[in-house]
Amino acid sequence: MTAGSVLVTGGCGYIGSFTALALLQADYKVVIIDNLYNSAPEAINRIETLCGKRPDFYSVDITDEAAIDKVFKEHPDIDSVIHFAALKAVGESGEIPLDYYRVNVYGSLCLLRSMQRNNVTNIVFSSSATVYGDATRFPDMIPIPEHCPLGATNTYGRTKVGVEDMIRDHIKAERNRAKKEGKDESLYNGALLRYFNPAGAHPSGIMGEDPAGVPYNLLPLLAQVAVGKREKLLVFGDDYDSKDGTAIRDYIHILDLAAGHLLALNHLRAHKPGCKAWNLGTGKGSTVFEMIKAFSHAVGRDLPYEVAGRRDGDVLNLTANPTLANEELGWKAQRTLEDACEDLWRWTENNPQGYRQQPPGDLVKR
Ligand code: NAD
Ligand code: WQD
């Protein structure tokens, strides 16, 4: 099957930019829409530097249906969308829930309506392990399989559960309608990708995560400690029921995560499975202390930390059972935690100001 054209929403962001790169490397044509709320257009230059191809870019808000329509009209060859554009800070989502529902849920609705009007039938959606909530309430569900009951414990997670439901219902309805009209129902497909904890950067050191404002996640915070932007890391709780008392997460290298999107898209286009959820994780859990040790090793010195109380809403263990993605998508995480830490450190050292600072020339050539 030939590669086609894909619309990537939020394609200037962390996971979106790596996925755009993987798609271009696999000979897909890529059109990005992003309002640059949490990203910089420099990401597009870095994609081009790494693969020699440049995605088309439109500054479009995901809640602007007319603008999305216009992009589809200009690119009638697009048959699939990978939908990343969203707000993603768990803490903030409880403070400004209406913004989260507007961008994440209403934005997804606008996108689906525009896809429907423009006969774009495949969607790969950025869901999250957060949809499982506290899976430790089902002890036989660790590592977590896709059939684990969902139970988001925060506003952000509830927007993801809501959009998963919306996509499932929409694809079912589109298939029913196509069948009634004697058309090909198998064209309508969705992949709900539940990512665990994305980590790392491009091994070249020129592409990585560049969040606006204060980071929320463990590794970007540790990176700030390493470059002296932050005095120490606060460890949120050492009284969990784990081997060292700190919470367990499944950290997955960003290149592996991007490859998962490519394989999910290929699977939708080749096998037309309807709408399905897949976990993207390594299956291996690491504690916060193990992460501090691994990142300190990459940096070459011990990084300061202090144990604080548990963070509201945190759970003991979020580790994926990735068997379904292994078997059905042919996807398996290849890179180690050490790779992720080394790559993150290279990116951080080379780009202390993120994309606001141009990389040294020799790095671009690598
Ligand atoms: P990111 O913030 O780097 O990327 C999101 C992109 O969407 C940004 O470029 C941002 O500018 C854009 N965007 C935000 N609001 C928009 C709007 N109204 N219109 C158009 N574009 C808009 O985040 P990321 O880490 O790359 O996450 C991508 C997706 O993956 C999100 O849907 C997120 O919820 C999901 N996800 C992220 C993680 C994680 O830990 N990073 C884990 C699981 C799921
Ligand atoms: C990892 C571990 C913290 C910061 C979040 C979202 C999830 C997904 C990924 C989007 C936890 C501990 C953290 C710090 C710490 N995102 N920690 N000190 O919470 O697993 O997942 O990002 O979908 O939905 O909830 O990731 O990186 O914030 O935390 O001790 O300063 O590090 O308690 O155990 P989390 P994280």
From TrEMBL:
It catalyses: UDP-alpha-D-glucose = UDP-alpha-D-galactose. InterPro entries: Epimerase_deHydtase (IPR001509), NAD(P)-bd_dom_sf (IPR036291), UDP_G4E (IPR005886). It is an enzyme of class 5 (isomerase). GO terms for cellular component: cytosol. GO terms for biological process: galactose metabolic process. Residues 6-281 form the NAD-dependent epimerase/dehydratase domain. The keyword Lyase does not apply. Its cofactor is NAD(+). Keywords: Carbohydrate metabolism, Galactose metabolism, Isomerase, NAD. Coiled coil: none annotated. It comes from the Eukaryota. Its EC number is 5.1.3.2. Pathway: Carbohydrate metabolism; hexose metabolism; Carbohydrate metabolism; galactose metabolism. GO terms for molecular function: UDP-glucose 4-epimerase activity. Mutarotase converts alpha-aldose to the beta-anomer. It is active on D-glucose, L-arabinose, D-xylose, D-galactose, maltose and lactose. NCBIfam families: galE. This is UDP-glucose 4-epimerase. It comes from Eremomyces bilateralis CBS 781.70.
